[in-house]
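Lab notebook: predicted structure, single chain.

Context: the supervisor wants predicted structures on file for every construct in the current expression panel, including those that have not yet been purified. This is the next one on the list. No modifications to the sequence; it matches the entry in the shared construct table.
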Amino acid sequence: MPVTPDPDAPDPAHDVEQRRREAGVDHRFPFGRPGEPLGRAHPFVFGFTAALGVITAWLLVQAASNAKSVIVMIVVAMFLAVGLNPAVERLRRFGLPRSAAVAAVFLVVILFFAGFVASLVQPVSEQVTELRKNIPEYVEQLQENKTLANWDKRYGLLDRAEETVKGEDFQKSLTDIATGIGKVAVSGVFQTVTILILTLYFMSSLPQIKTFFYKLAPRSRRARVALLGDEILDRIGGYVAGQFTIAFIAGTISYIFLAVLGVKYALALALIVAVTDLIPLIGATIGAVVVCLVAFLTGDVTDLIVCAIFYLIYQQVENYVVYPRVMKRTVDVQPAVTIVAALVGGALLGVVGALLAIPTAAAISLLIREIVVPRQETM
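Prediction complete. Output recorded below exactly as produced.
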């Protein structure tokens, strides 16, 4: 037992032996026996806890704002790991160990990214080469344009343009733009590689991560927490699998349609449609606009009209036939909640927020239905 302090004894802050005697040090408690905890109503406990809470909240807000990009990458990687976990579990049913199943699924993801990038290299390089070849022709057409010639006589457009191009501000602007594009490209590559590496680690250790967080719950409620947690993860995984399925269908149908129509870069455009289709609400429209624009630039007005009609019809089929059939067993969320969640998520975190919003809304609705509503019924 700790010794009652003697007023005449040496101060334990300066005397080591007195410190050990008063603390009651022995072989079981090398740093002394813990004293009786102060009551929660004690003024010191209340004030200290309140001050500590305010400081902690302020530090967390500052840390979150400074590390926003890192937090987003971790959340996206965890989201992808949970979403790809059903594929890993399905491979494990065929007798594969988890490490081999994770490697197989991750290899498919890497091949998809590599194929997407490779499919874009050819059309981009061809367009840049064609632009270089046609620059003299474009300049000649501008010089022969009567309207432009009249404007040049009135306002001296060519002289002003030449002065602007030769000016230091214009050269500096070009340098800044090139530097900015380079920084964005390097940052994008770094973030993509980081997310893929984190996804691999999370996929490999997902069972251990789940077990760790489940053990944080009280023992008496751990089973229910684990069941709810598994259901939430299953819904997230089902949502991701459903989104990939819908995107795959959109990309496949787009490739067949564009190949039959004879549009250039059909494979690259189909992959763009598949990737943009992952974005809730506006993704399919973005992909359709890109395809229609490329079809018009590489073809004629007829190709533009045909593509516009095709994607207008396909989006209706996807929204009212494909999406409900794929998602009805995974995400149990009302359509209005889905739209609001996607809008709020997009406003907070952009495209990433829109992607994460719907499964997050599904998880929150499950917790409300299973925890909040039953508790309200008993009050």
